Amino acid sequence: MTNKLLNPVKEGFTVANGMIEIKWIGSNDIRSIKLEYSDNGGKSWITIINNYEVIPGKENKFIWNGVPDKSTRIALIRISDTGGIYTVTSKRFVVER
């Protein structure tokens, strides 16, 4: 079972002011996740937070105020369990500066 990403989910979603609300429904068997960000379409990733405790089977969210000060049209968010077995990646979105 995997996490279901709720935000960002649509292509073309735009982030401004360095903040994004990441929302997902947690899997019933995952208690801790890693959130990552890519500004280059997934070629490389930076860790937003590791070992973030979640509520299994419920909607979870993380407010990230540290979106890098770099414009991109191919940004991605990735959520994975801390064991690295289950991963879900957002659609590409825009970061404007």
Short account of what is shown:
The chain is mainly β and 97 residues long.
What does this molecule look like?
With 97 residues, this protein is mostly beta strands. It has one domain (4-95): Sandwich (Immunoglobulin-like). The protein is built from no helices and 9 strands. The protein has strands at 4-7, 14-15, 20-25, 32-38, 46-53, 59-64, 72-81, 87-89, 93-95. Strands 2, 4, 5, 7, 8 and 9 form a 6-stranded mixed beta sheet that branches. A 3-stranded antiparallel beta sheet has the order 1-3-6, with no helix packed on it. The termini are far apart. The model has no long low-confidence stretch (mean pLDDT 84).
Low-confidence stretches: none
What is the terminal separation in angstroms?
A: 36 Å
The CATH topology is: Immunoglobulin-like
Number of strands: 9
Task: Please give the CATH architecture.
Answer: Sandwich
Structural class by sheet pairing and helices: mainly beta
Q: What is the CATH class name?
A: Mainly Beta
| Pattern of helices and strands | EEEEEEEEE
Proportion of β residues? over 45%
Q: What general form does the structure show?
A: globular
What share of the residues lie within helices? under 10%
Radius of gyration: 13 Å
Count of spatially separate domains: 1
Major sheet details = 6 strands, mixed
CATH superfamily: Immunoglobulins
What average pLDDT do the residues reach?
84
